[in-house]
Amino acid sequence: MTESWADAAERIGADLHLELSGPGGRRAALIGALREAVRSGRLAPGTRLPPYRSLAADLGVARNTVADAYAELVAEGWLTARQGSGTRVAERAEAVRPAVRVAPRTRARGVRHDLRQGTPDASRFPRTAWQASYRRALQQAPNEVFGPGDPAGRIELREALAEYLARARGVRTEPGRIVVCSGFAHALRLLFGGGVLRGPLGVEAYGLGFHRELLAGAGVRTVPLPLDEHGARVDLLGRERAVLLTPAHQFPTGGPLHAARRSAVVDWARTRGGVVLEDDYDGEFRYDRKPVGALQGLDPERVVYIGSVSKSLSPALRLGWMVLPGHLVDQVLGVKGEREGWASVLDQLALADFLAAGSYDRHVRRMRQHYRGRRDRLTAALAAQAPHIEVTGVAAGLHAVLRLPPGTEPSAVKGAAWQGIALDGLAEFRHPETDMEPMDGLVVGYATPPEHAYAAALEALCGVLPAAPDGDGHHGGLGTGREGRRVG
Amino acid sequence: MTESWADAAERIGADLHLELSGPGGRRAALIGALREAVRSGRLAPGTRLPPYRSLAADLGVARNTVADAYAELVAEGWLTARQGSGTRVAERAEAVRPAVRVAPRTRARGVRHDLRQGTPDASRFPRTAWQASYRRALQQAPNEVFGPGDPAGRIELREALAEYLARARGVRTEPGRIVVCSGFAHALRLLFGGGVLRGPLGVEAYGLGFHRELLAGAGVRTVPLPLDEHGARVDLLGRERAVLLTPAHQFPTGGPLHAARRSAVVDWARTRGGVVLEDDYDGEFRYDRKPVGALQGLDPERVVYIGSVSKSLSPALRLGWMVLPGHLVDQVLGVKGEREGWASVLDQLALADFLAAGSYDRHVRRMRQHYRGRRDRLTAALAAQAPHIEVTGVAAGLHAVLRLPPGTEPSAVKGAAWQGIALDGLAEFRHPETDMEPMDGLVVGYATPPEHAYAAALEALCGVLPAAPDGDGHHGGLGTGREGRRVG
Question: What CATH number has the domain bearing residue B304?
Fold first, then answer.
């Protein structure tokens, strides 16, 4: 009886797929198939081939046919045979032509000092505690975890989030109103890509361009709201159907939304039937001032609260959440669909354990101290070397804004690039349709560099700032006394 | 000096957010804020409150104010104080009104025997080996892993996939042409949702409805290709711009695409500038016949190969991949975007290790034996108890099709539901616009039930099949001798 493919594969230790469809006999066909597999790079140099017996059983040919074919290809130089290590693919094989790719952000060339906003200190990921949570989660998971999942996300995680967000961020919710997703962009797609919410959408005049692009791609018109010293001018909202805000820490300028504005935007939503989207991207990191709770707490039926672990742990986990008004839950889940969990269920369970074990609280507190130290070093360096530069937005978050004299931002950004400093100017974040007075400034992410590189990055930064003008160095605009350099 | 929020939080051991904005003095405001936090469910029953000193420092009020507020709320019954365990929220608190939700698939009511296709045996997830790979991956990961990622996916995984897919599935590729995603649906979205590919799209007349819905949602018209004993009638392709096929194992009817059709569809793509999408959803599971390699190997510049771990490991991981023609790579990455990895980077690294360590090969072989045993028990039970029922599509995959006499499918599906058997009829998968002769049949997923429940599920299944008609029990159509019941 011929041994079946399955039995052969079981014994070989690894599958090898070959088509013997060429012209000529079985031996010629096998030689052709193996040669083509090596030439095309499908069998990589150094790959060990199955023993004669296994491949013969597998392909339904005589063992000698395989032995002959191997010998022929060794003779031709495609394979090598060495005593005790079997037959392997020779090192000379040519690979498939590699695709040409645009270099991803992580490999940006010429960057010596990375002061871009948006990412936590990658060297501080809590590997040990996370691994412990993942191990416990995997051990304790019921079998159904590995089957088709709940599009809302694992209940364990939604329960842990409901407790945490209520306690730490003032969110009023319960697990049935939470939908797990892969981050803020995914949340926007679910809300606007499937028609749950519609535009026009009010947005802050300064904000993330890729959010605007994503919304434009979904056919949503964004209407910029000017910023002043109290935050976004929500009093200008009119016929918009929703508004997207960063109430705890305006991105990127850095102030909190004033209490009167918080009430006003909720009143607008109630009166007009609008929806407020709250992007709580770094609400856990505040250093001096009293923490600002979630706007969602003012009206859970009018505010969609969106958060993620991208700033608190790492963007690599791709884990975020929406806290929804009750009437939107089923619509969002309908768009998400049963088969599109889009967030690793095992990571969801690991995060649930990480929250419940108190590891999340511990990590956030440790990182708060760490980033406060970074922030203090930044403000101290500027006070010493560039006292004419006003620093705003430093009471919270992972970045600061260095305000510059009008018109000087482009040359400062260019100068920074010349010195190998990666950072953005405020212009990068400006809504193209706003008529708000332009602000000049540099957005400095102080969380990004590894510890050993931070001092040099600060030194380089101070070296490219514009020199002090004659007279007063204060440039007006959004800077408030509370938010100014006099901190820490 | 007043202790800062950060210092206080550090010492409390957990964050507690309160707003003291109510009317009256600090004490009244604190009482009101705490009462509201408990009443709204934001502070869950049993939650331990911070010590007086911590909360006082945190809120910038006197310690006695906190002590008074706690005492008042204990008196009111909102809090309880016990020697040695501090002050806690009482057990009577009322929660936020829960959102009403449609029950997800996993909680379908009345299902006693789950024979739905589409999922692997959830009880066989290789927990120990996966945990070992995850641990190694997390320990060895460079810090940059925790920063912003490459939208193509981790290079470690793409390298491991290129090696594995070449060896086991006959795919011709290199890591630069692979894009990691969260599964097949995500791949379709990236290809069609962002305009990389356009319709009309040829699809098999029987296939997954949710793929058709997803495509319709992206504005893509699907054109059904009839099936015959050689698979999809690709000779009928005309002005379609792309075609989606399941060449290794037609879903759901079960046969492989004939060699002549494989060549023909590649010729069509070359002649018309079309693209072939190859859904290799369960290509690793074949039991008797010679394995069918990936169609992609015939022309890597014309075929997009799509696979995932959803059948081989678990859909819970949300990990899949596209192998792209060189000229589509940058377009797909442009749609995916730098910030939308949508697949946990740690799971990506774990899978890379799992592949490189040989654990993936071992698991696939073990599961192949397991599912072959399941398949054999199914065919044996049918041979004994319902010999008139023809079984097709059993040479591979995780499901079989039980062909039924014309017109009997609806009553059989209904009968199964009455007996608590969850399964689908072929009608469920039929393209609404096809003019192909309808086929009656039950799609039986034999991987889904846990081991202890399988015998009872088979027994129940045999009990609801239509009785033998007079004369010949063969119903024609797609059944080929090779694919028939005479296996195992």
Answer: 3.40.640.10
Query: How sure is the predictor about B291, in pLDDT bands with cuts at 50, 70 and 90?
Result: low
Same domain, B397 and B488: yes
Same domain, B339 and B382: no
Yes or no, beta carbons of A145 and B122 under 8 Å apart: yes
Looking at residue A23, which CATH number applies to its domain? 1.10.10.10
Helical H segments across A341-483, by residue range: 345-356, 359-385, 409-418, 451-463
pLDDT by residue (tens digit) across A204-242? 999 998 899 889 988 999 999 999 999 999 999 999 999
Q: What is the dihedral of CA B34, B36, B38, B43, to 10 degrees?
A: -80
For chain A, say whether B339 makes contact (Cβ under 8 Å): yes
Query: Which residues of B are less than 8 Å from A364 in CB distance?
Result: 15
Same-domain check for residues A402 and A477: yes
For residue B200, cis peptide bond before it (omega within 30 degrees of 0) = yes
Q: What is the pTM of this model?
A: 0.82
Which residues in chain B are contacts of A17 at CB distance < 8 A?
Answer: 167-170, 291, 293
A130 and A73 assigned to the same domain: no
Residues 21-80 of B with CB under 8 A from A: 21, 37, 40-44, 47, 59-60
Residue A424 lies in a domain: yes
CB B221 within 8 A of CB B203: no
Higher pLDDT, A356 or B56: A356
* Number of Cβ atoms within 10 Å of the Cβ of B226: 15
**B398 has a pLDDT exceeding 80:** yes
Least confident of A305-319, B92-106, B133-147: B92-106
Q: What is the pLDDT of residues B203-258, one digit of tens each?
A: 999 999 889 988 998 899 999 999 999 999 999 999 999 999 999 999 999 889 99
| Residue B98 covered by a domain | no
One-character DSSP codes across B128-145: HHHHHHHHHHHHH--GGG
| DSSP secondary structure letters along A30-64 | HHHHHHHHHHTTSS-TTPBPPPHHHHHHHHT--HH
Chain A positions in Cβ-Cβ contact with residue B166 (cut-off 8 Å): 37, 41-44
How crowded is the C-beta side of A48, counted as CA atoms within 13 Å? 11
Nearest-CA residue of chain A relative to B131?
A: A135
Query: Closest residue of B to A161, CA-based?
Result: B42
Report the amino acid identity of residue B266.
V
* Ranges A165-179, A314-328, B82-96, B404-418: which has the least confidence: B82-96
* B301-332 residue pLDDT tens: 999 999 999 999 999 999 999 999 999 999 99
Question: Do A272 and A130 fall into the same domain?
Answer: yes
User: How many angstroms separate the CA of residue B427 from the nearest CA in chain A?
Assistant: 20
With DSSP H G I counted as helix, E B as strand and the rest as coil, what are the percentages for chain A, rounded to 5?
40, 15, 45
State whether A246 and A306 are in the same domain.
yes
Instruction: Tell me how many domains chain A contains.
Output: 3
Domain boundary pick from A306, A340, A357: A357
Spatial distance between the Cα atoms of A330 and A307, rounded to a whole number of angstroms: 19
In a domain, A99, yes or no: no
Residue B289: what pLDDT?
63
pLDDT exceeds cutoff 80 at A288: no
Residue B268 lies in a domain: yes
User: What range does the domain containing A484 cover?
Assistant: 108-119+359-488
**B139 and A CB contact within 8 Å:** yes
- Does A271 touch chain B if contact means CB atoms closer than 8 Å? no
pLDDT value at residue B443: 96
pLDDT value at residue A13: 46
**pLDDT recorded at residue A432:** 95
Domain boundary among B306, B335, B357: B357
Q: How far is A369 from chain B (nearest CA, A)?
A: 7
Q: Is residue A399 domain-shared with residue A452, that is, in the same domain?
A: yes
Residues of B in contact with A170 (CB under 8 A): 17-19, 42
Percent of chain A with pLDDT over 90: 59
A400 and A468 fall within a common domain: yes
Residue of chain A minimizing CA distance to B8: A365
Say how far apart CA A406 and CA A395 lie, in whole Å.
24
Task: Give the one of A43, A125, A138 whose C-beta lies nearest to B166's C-beta.
Answer: A43
Q: Is pLDDT of B87 > 90? A: no
